[in-house]
Amino acid sequence: MLQAGRRAGRIEMEIERTGRSAEELVDALADSETRVPAYFELDRYYGGEAVPAIREGLGHGNWLVRKWSAMYLDHHADAKSLEALLPLLRDPKSQVRLWAVHSISCDTCKLGGNPIDIVPLLIERIELDESIKVRRMATVMLAVQTLDARVLPVFERIIADEEDRKLKLHARNGLTRYRELGLSFAGK
Asked: What local confidence, expressed as pLDDT, does residue 1 receive?
């Protein structure tokens, strides 16, 4: 059973354990009726132990399972899971790509380092992805999660050439952060 309530501005969930396996819960991510309770049951009762089943979910035939599995790995990824997210950067569904971008590059919610050089992967998403939301997410992640000189010309190009105001805002914010931290583009 899932009960939601508010306390001090946060949503709290009371989740009862259903006895389903992690694999069954991952499959339940496909159904709008069972998705949220399954996700929270995985998180509360399995945590990192669900990661092997979640990694299997990354290759699931249903795009919603791939999306929610990528979301789960934002908080529970290990090196093997981060590697398993790589193919989802080119998934046919933009929401899957968006969560793959976020989960593979967000260090805020993870313990340990990321063994993947995410900068060229995110630059590729900015330059080639057809979804503006994916492009924005990749730009935000480069702006706030990395400190790498390879990003500066990308920010400069976005500011000069792109029309989307949110994309430009994220690039400007990233450029400002980089400059405040003493990194600047050699050409400027």
From this structure: 38
